[in-house]
């Protein structure tokens, strides 16, 4: 196994522990607010007279806007620094969430909750935070550090699910969204600790955006990784947005839905840390195939048994262990393939595939429910896609892409 080291440009005045702590808080806030949007499905559609498909479409556009923006946000942070990227993203994200509270039509919701919020999420996402982590630690520790960042984002999901539901119960969904937007502005001062950018390593090519992308796409293992990541997005977005409503349809309370999302976040802390640990000690592609296979089994078992409060929490716990556990080995493989210099941009391309899957999962969930009155078809599709993704990851080889080698550094005279 080989990887490409990359020197960094990072302020010596910012200790590594400060970078990690600040980055983890940023990841927790950003992901926590985003994962609370499923709690707004029922109150918003009821008050605004929208269909589930209309709300699902706004969330689907959000995921697609996030995915399209992510490679450019990563490339910008690679070139010009993480701090200014994250701060700008937080302002855009907060603006989108606040404007979402005043969106009275599906068209406005597509703009505010969809495009503006999606772009903001991309620019201050934990993917950008992981760039700061990736350039600051040695290659052999990156997988574990990526696991820490992912676990932090999951902790945000755990704490913001009950916070979001509490805001809705106490103040109504509109005020709840305004409060969540205000919380997002805390990211702006925290971003200062992430300042710095990544330089190309000696012996590594320094390529323009589209040249790097073209060369990367010729590498078979990268193509397979990108294709498989589609399924992760499909699973996460469908469950996050539609599971609370699905549980209400099964006769459970909205609080069970919110706590199920929280349980996913709680268990994913352990799952992400374990994935980051294992990613440094076993082939990452085998780890990813195992995760997708386990997801397929968990969803199949959930559909086989009656849905009760107990089975809902059991499924949430199982999915939580597998939730974002794909991220550390996926990001780790990108750095193995191409080095830390291109992580932001090329992981962003993989993440675009993830977000296309998210778009399909969110939209299809709403469409199938409106047509059939049930989410069952999408659950079954999730099983099949999990099996397919497990198969796609098996041929991946954990090795550096030769096309990203530059001229060998010349010895000093």
UniProtKB/TrEMBL annotation:
Keywords: Membrane, Transmembrane, Transmembrane helix. This is MFS transporter. The chain crosses the membrane at residues 12-34, 54-73, 85-102, 108-132, 144-164, 176-194, 224-247, 259-279, 286-307, 313-338, 345-365, 377-396. PANTHER family: EG:103B4.3 PROTEIN-RELATED, MONOCARBOXYLATE TRANSPORTER. InterPro entries: MFS (IPR011701), MFS_dom (IPR020846), MFS_trans_sf (IPR036259), Proton-linked_MCT (IPR050327). It holds the Pfam family MFS_1. Residues 16-400 form the Major facilitator superfamily (MFS) profile domain. SUPFAM superfamilies: MFS general substrate transporter. GO terms for molecular function: transmembrane transporter activity. The keyword Transmembrane applies.
């Amino acid at each position: 196994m080989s990887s490409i080291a990359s020197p960094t440009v990072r302020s010596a005045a910012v200790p590594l522990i400060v970078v990690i702590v600040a980055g983890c808080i940023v990841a927790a806030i950003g992901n926590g607010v985003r994962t609370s949007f499923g709690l707004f499905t029922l109150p918003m559609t009821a008050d605004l007279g929208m269909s589930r498909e209309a709300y699902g479409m706004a969330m689907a556009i959000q995921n697609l806007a996030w995915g399209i923006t992510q490679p450019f946000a990563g490339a910008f942070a690679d070139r010009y620094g993480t701090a200014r990227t994250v701060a700008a993203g937080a302002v855009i994200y907060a603006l989108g969430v606040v404007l979402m509270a005043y969106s009275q039509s599906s068209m406005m919701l597509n703009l505010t909750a969809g495009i503006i919020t999606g772009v903001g999420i991309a620019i201050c996402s934990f993917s950008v935070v992981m760039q700061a982590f990736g350039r600051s630690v040695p290659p052999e520790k990156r997988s574990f550090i990526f696991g820490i960042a992912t676990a932090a984002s999951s902790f945000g999901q755990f704490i913001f699910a009950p916070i979001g539901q509490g805001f809705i119960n106490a103040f109504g969904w509109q005020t709840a969204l305004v409060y969540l937007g205000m919380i997002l502005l805390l990211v702006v001062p925290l971003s200062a600790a992430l300042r710095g950018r990544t330089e190309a390593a000696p012996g590594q090519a320094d390529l323009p955006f589209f040249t790097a992308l073209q060369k990367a796409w010729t590498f078979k293992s990268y193509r397979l990784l990108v294709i498989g990541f589609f399924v992760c997005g499909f699973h996460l977005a469908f469950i996050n947005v539609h599971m609370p409503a699905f549980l209400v349809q099964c006769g459970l309370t909205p609080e069970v839905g919110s706590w199920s999302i929280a349980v996913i976040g709680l268990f994913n802390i352990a799952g992400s840390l374990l994935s980051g640990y294992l990613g440094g000690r076993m082939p990452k592609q085998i780890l990813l195939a195992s995760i997708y296979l386990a997801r397929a089994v968990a969803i199949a078992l959930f559909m086989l048994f009656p849905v009760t409060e107990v089975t809902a929490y059991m499924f949430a716990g199982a999915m939580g262990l597998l939730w974002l556990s794909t991220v550390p080995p996926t990001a780790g493989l990108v750095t193995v393939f191409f080095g830390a210099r291109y992580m932001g941009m090329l992981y962003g391309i993989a993440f675009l595939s993830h977000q296309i899957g998210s778009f399909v999962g969110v939209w299809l969930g709403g469409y199938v429910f409106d047509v059939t009155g049930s989410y069952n078809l999408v659950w079954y599709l999730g099983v099949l896609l999990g099996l397919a993704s497990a198969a796609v990851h098996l041929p991946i080889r954990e090795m550096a892409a030769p096309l990203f080698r530059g001229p060998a550094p010349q010895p000093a005279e």
